[in-house]
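The passage that follows is intended for readers who have already worked through the single-chain material. We present the inputs for a multi-component assembly, then the predicted structure in tokenized form, and finally a short commentary. You are encouraged to pause after the input and sketch how you expect the pieces to fit together before reading on.
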Amino acid sequence: MCYVDNTNIMSTNSPFTYKIGSNLSSPFPGAYIFTGTMTTASSGMVPVCSSMPRFDVAGLSELLNDKDAQVLVLPGYSLELYTDVSYVTLNTTVNNTEGTDLLFRNASLTASSCKLFFKFIKGYAEITYKP
Amino acid sequence: MVLCAKRDMLLLSFCNSLDLSPIIFIFVFGRWFSYLFLCMFGLTIFLMFNHAILNLSWFIYNTMAFLNSYRFHIAYGAIMYNGTINGTSSCYPVFTSQSNLAALTSISDSGSGTIDISDVDDYWIVMPGYKIVVYSLSGYTGTLLLTGDNSTGASQTTFKISSPNNASSIQLYFRGTLIAQPA
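Having made your guess, compare it with the prediction:
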């Protein structure tokens, strides 16, 4: 996720990176969370660049917590939505690691954390920020 | 290799004894310079390829990347807005052409399915280098509703479609080249 607290250093397993100063940045989202359906004209689009342990932090809670109506996952990526923070209680998995096109899925408006994975040549790995 | 080196040294000694020009030296040792050049060239190619498959940063300069052996745009080229941009709206990022907006690939607990986002378009934002063509029917047919060309633009451009809520298929171009929908 492009939103971070004070830990803006990406993990070294992040794809499509470039350096900003000494920090490794990954500006390309692997998935998007929509807070409503396209047809309702009231949906927000939240890019997901990495795993996010908490949707309930200030600034993000109003935008995303329990507001996952639809998700869109790019090919090569996999997104896991969890009902509770800190990746507790897996609710939805949208696995597009073997796909070649975009993949939609209707979600359940219950997500409070998510994990993002990418299928690297050298293996399948979670995209996280360094603590 | 050792025999060749010894032979070249003998040749060089012979050339020196005859006080021949440095051209002979280059002629004798040109092969070794070729070997060195080929090694360095091969090493460069290896490092480039290695860097590419591990990091892929080489491709982000034109927003292209290989995903599952398919050349897929990792960044969207346009955004479709349903509603007004500065008001209540929803939006959809466009990465490739889409032949049928009424049946985008989706999954569910019961298996595969589709999601319909046709006939909801009001505004389009097209990123620099991209062009979008909007059609009223699927399969890039029917009325041509909009050609939003920002191929040579330096910043993103917003297009308000004159006949909103009619889009059924879209073609996306990057610097004049069609970005086809993956098969």
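Commentary: The first strand of chain A starts at residue 18 and ends at 20. Confidence is low (pLDDT under 50) at residues 1-10 of chain A. How closely did your sketch match?
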